[in-house]
Amino acid sequence: MSQKNLYEILDYVDHSRAKRKTVVAFLRQNPSWIPKLLEIAYENQSPVSSRACWVLDFTLKTDIELLFPYIKVFTDNLGSVHLDSSVRPIAKICEHLIIAYFAKEKNAVQEVLKKTHREKITTACFDWLISEQKVAPQAYAMICLLHLGEEFDWIHPELLLILEKNYHTGSAAYKARSRQVFAKLKRTRS
Question: What pLDDT, on a 0 to 100 scale, did the predictor assign at position 158?
Fold first, then answer.
């Protein structure tokens, strides 16, 4: 299969589960295409970059280990994603990684996600929180930062400042997620 074929496959993808499942099945059978998919995902000018992000999210939700050989590429390029329809799935992948990393049960993410990767996710999450983003990536960022604050002690105070500043102008969904984060932060401080 050529790069052109991958673009054709991504052109085929939309929000329907059936089409995404078809592409996910292809990627699970052909994981060597993941680096190319990441490359397309980070091409902000490409009309299919958002579709590449959707496919990555849908694929990695069921098999996060497919990302492991390319975790550096993934985290190094987080800051280059700007399209709303791309930021959401990328932020969601970050949330999957961080939740798995901070899980009590031993898992493979804990072996692969190094401090430098976590630092890059931290930076991206703060960028998503302070920039003009939709609520979903901001909600994923809040959860990531909540967990990352267990490791990096400066995160929770910064997160609190941002949430308090934006709370009154945030949407109902933003406020709801903020309240959840506030409650968890208060419990950890007690």
Answer: 96
**pTM listed for this prediction:** 0.93
d(CA 152, CA 102): 13
Q: Which residues contact 31 (CB under 8 A, 6 or more apart)?
A: 66
By C-alpha distance, which of 166, 168, 121, 165 is closest to 145? Answer: 121
Q: Residue 104 — φ and ψ, nearest 5°?
A: -70, -35
| CA–CA distance, 9 with 66 (Å, rounded to integer) | 19
**Comparing C-alpha atoms, which of 88, 187, 188 is closest to residue 141?**
88
Grouping H, G, I as helix, E, B as strand and the rest as coil, residue 169 is coil
* Run of H or E including 1: none
Q: 135-180, pLDDT tens digit by residue?
A: 999 999 999 999 999 999 999 999 999 999 999 999 999 999 999 9
pLDDT in tens, 109-143: 999 999 999 999 999 999 999 998 999 999 999 99
Helix (H, G, I), strand (E, B) or coil at 175: helix
CB atoms within 10 A of CB 70: 16
Relative orientation angle of helices 155-167 and 172-189, to the nearest 10 degrees: 140
Contact 39, 70 (CB under 8 A): no
**φ and ψ of 63, to 5 deg:** -150, 75
